[in-house]
């Protein structure tokens, strides 16, 4: 969002595709720009500005400096992030997608937002899947280790996937339950077959 001492000048940079503008009474919505693959945004009336890799405050300062180069000398720019998510899956209380509303979120905070690990979740091998260029890389984090603060995935990025593995006890229970279901299903099938044969014989 752009503001200035002269609102009429600032309005044009806040117009969205469906908004209308008049110098006396403008009806506007904040314009949302999307970063392209090179980290650029294409601003109305200004052109491309490189902000990829910057924090929101750094991006705001850079855009503001462009405005103040003879375009809008008293411009004040606010940058907000939209449609940024990470995903936490596995043995946590509330698995799912989590919206990111600030520049940085740690893996510990993300797990907390997912309701924390269940008692059967492994704390020594948290998996983080991150897209880097055209490749998907997997990292492992031990929440019990002080080395976690030096991990490249301690601070999560947009679209990171965090997966909490269940411990061996829970995995064993899951396997036993699956085997029990298969056993019951097998016996039911055998019983049904024997019943069908008996009906054919005695009829």
From TrEMBL:
GO CC annotation terms, alphabetical: cell outer membrane; pore complex
Signal peptide range in chain numbering: none
Subcellular locations according to the entry: Cell outer membrane
Molecular-function annotations in GO: polysaccharide transmembrane transporter activity; porin activity
Membrane topology: Multi-pass membrane protein
Annotated keywords: Cell outer membrane, Ion transport, Lipoprotein, Membrane, Palmitate, Polysaccharide transport, Porin, Signal, Sugar transport, Transmembrane, Transmembrane beta strand, Transport
Main location: membrane
InterPro entries tied to this protein: Poly_export, Poly_export_N, SLBB_dom
Transmembrane region(s): none
Coiled-coil segments on the chain, per record: none
Residues of the Polysaccharide export protein N-terminal domain: 24-79
GO biological processes: monoatomic ion transport
Domain SLBB: 86-164
Family per similarity comment: Belongs to the BexD/CtrA/VexA family.
Name this protein carries in UniProt: Polysaccharide export protein, BexD/CtrA/VexA family
The species this protein was found in: gut metagenome
